[in-house]
């Protein structure tokens, strides 16, 4: 990574995922420096949206937005989503779902994906790619990402990867090898370029992005301090309105998702119980058949013995 970009082209990427999966460490890896707070913690280190920028040598300027977990126990998710939109008013070029090979894929991660999809529409999936952190663990076991997915890929994760066009990359955020770091970052940026090309070189935006961009543009064009203050107030009011709207929608969607996931869990448990019941019944039938066969063989053997005895007499 250098300080001299080839052009003024700017690409904005957003990191999302469960608390503890390594979003901030991944962001630092992309930036080539420790800008986002990152450490091993049971609670999330990232509590607010934050944006950092890096200039790729002979390439574009990259804006990296780090986000807190949607389900990290705080009540500010709606506010941080609006803040993220505000930071990326010109649109988002890629959303990076950060998972970890160190932990099992969870319902929370599935819910995060589905919530983002519900908030921004199905089109948002066309801008997603997946980063799996913990590459050093797989390297230590001489495994590849495909090896890991072949043996540890639940159906929900398979579905997400399919919807994301199977765009995925493995990250080792602990590597001290600069060439290896650059290689994995380049793999990610190549996937970002694929997303941009796939979407006609247009970043993701929707009505929320457009409204904030228009309000911000009005504020910047204000010529007098009085007008500027008025417009700034309108802009702040718009942010509050959007926050309230998104928080309401978020609460509604999360409620639906939790209900759906609970129903799936109940159905899964019921199916497992039915399977065990059928298996138990089948085992009993097999045991009965074996017993009947033993009895039949025993009778046949005894019959032959009696028959043999009579012949001698």
UniProtKB/TrEMBL annotation:
InterPro entries: G_AIG1, GIMA/IAN/Toc, P-loop_NTPase. GO terms for molecular function: GTP binding. Residues 8-213 form the AIG1-type G domain. Pfam families: AIG1. SUPFAM superfamilies: P-loop containing nucleoside triphosphate hydrolases. The keyword GTP-binding applies. Keywords: GTP-binding, Nucleotide-binding. Belongs to the TRAFAC class TrmE-Era-EngA-EngB-Septin-like GTPase superfamily. AIG1/Toc34/Toc159-like paraseptin GTPase family. IAN subfamily. This is AIG1-type G domain-containing protein. It comes from Phaseolus vulgaris (Kidney bean).
